[in-house]
Automatic annotation (TrEMBL):
GO terms for molecular function: [acyl-carrier-protein] phosphodiesterase activity. Keywords: Hydrolase, Lipid biosynthesis, Lipid metabolism. Pfam families: ACP_PD. PANTHER family: ACYL CARRIER PROTEIN PHOSPHODIESTERASE. The lineage of its organism: Bacteria, Pseudomonadati, Bacteroidota, Chitinophagia, Chitinophagales. InterPro entries: ACP_PD (IPR007431). This is Acyl carrier protein phosphodiesterase. One of its GO terms (biological process) is fatty acid biosynthetic process. It comes from Thermoflavifilum thermophilum.
């Protein structure tokens, strides 16, 4: 669900961005063959980003901060937590540049609509109309993303414990992002050096 990070780590390369954004809706290796090579590269990059993120020790620390209330489902929250701190990272975005980047991303995706998987079409409608990429910057946007995950996975705990955990561990979560994201950027630049 961390759409902002995947978009940003496409480094303004349009077909790479498209592949990176639709990857969760493309299943298996054989299904890659129906896409142009440059979009395939984005899908492969997305999967590499996910694996790097999911196995990184700092991500495990983020999950641990939500584990008391959500158990193994705490893993759901790490990606959107990273997007929140990325959207508020003054070294990368300010309010104006994030809005500009969000509009660039939506317009680029529209230009490649012929390559969208069917399931992405519905998700993109919400992404654009509700301006998800911009709204990751706000706590209300973060909590809406969390609530969507909670509904999707039928978690009986609801959103309140996640909000409480976020506020309780805010500084630790920010520190995790600050340690993790430069490592992720370095990984991506080395994984696709032509797009660095």
């Amino acid at each position: 669900m961390n759409f902002l990070a995947h978009a940003y780590l496409s480094f303004y390369n349009p077909p790479l961005l498209v592949g990176n954004m639709i990857a969760d809706f493309v299943k298996g290796k054989k299904s890659l063959n129906r896409f142009p090579e440059a979009i395939q590269a984005g899908i492969v990059l997305h999967r590499a980003i996910d694996e790097f993120t999911d196995t990184h020790p700092v991500t495990h620390q983020v999950r641990d901060m939500f584990r008391l209330h959500y158990g193994l489902c705490a893993a759901l929250f790490a990606d959107v937590i990273y997007d929140y701190f990325l959207a508020n990272d003054s070294r990368i975005f300010n309010k104006h540049s994030l809005q500009t980047f969000a509009q660039y991303t939506y317009q680029t995706l529209h230009a490649y609509r012929q390559w969208w998987p069917d399931d992405f079409d519905r998700v993109f409608m919400y992404m654009e109309t509700q301006n998800w990429l911009w709204n990751y910057r706000t706590e209300s946007g973060l909590f809406r993303s969390m609530e969507s995950l909670i509904r999707r996975f039928h978690l009986a705990q609801g959103i309140q414990p996640a909000m409480d955990d976020f506020h309780t561990h805010y500084e630790k979560l920010q520190g995790c992002y600050q340690r993790f994201f430069p490592a992720l950027q370095s990984f991506v630049r080395n994984f696709h050096p032509l797009h660095a």
